[in-house]
Amino acid sequence: MTVAVETGLWQLDATASTVGIRHKTMWGLVTVKGGFGALGGTGEVRPDGSAVGTLTIDVASLDTGSAKRDTHLRSADFFDTDHHPEITFAARSAELRDSDQVHVVGRLTVRGISRPLSLTARLTEGDAPGLTLDTEFSVDRDQFGLGSNQLGMIRGRTTVTAALRFVRATG
């Protein structure tokens, strides 16, 4: 599929977008899954075809299906939402390659700690009214100060999945 994406400003359609996480816990025996319910973002496709943008996630909107666990994840042990209410990803460059593969280079900020992050997304839909990017990548929690690890139960990397729908910005 070769897609020509229109230049200009794009807005994240939060109702048609998802960001989820998966992490093995209990010494790798249990996989905890969750999703963030409140997202925002913008992007700009430049005349040369490259793109930049920002995705913002409201950390307090994380839902793992367990209110007790979600409260703990919002605490200072993990995301510390009182001091760091948002996770942001600032895409410094995004280039369409191989017809539907988008190479993205940017910075991920969690708990006020920013780290470089490169990933590949797939352009699954691209037309005049909108475009959709799907990606899956993993992050090391320890790099962002998310090191709470009682009895060694939580180790390894967290997998992040995202399906992001962008529509033409109006006004």
Automatic annotation (TrEMBL):
Residues 9-167 form the Lipid/polyisoprenoid-binding YceI-like domain. InterPro entries: Lipid/polyisoprenoid-bd_YceI, TTHA0802/YceI-like_sf. It comes from the Bacteria. Belongs to the UPF0312 family. PANTHER family: PROTEIN YCEI. This is YceI family protein. It comes from Streptomyces violaceus. The lineage of its organism: Bacteria, Bacillati, Actinomycetota, Actinomycetes, Kitasatosporales.
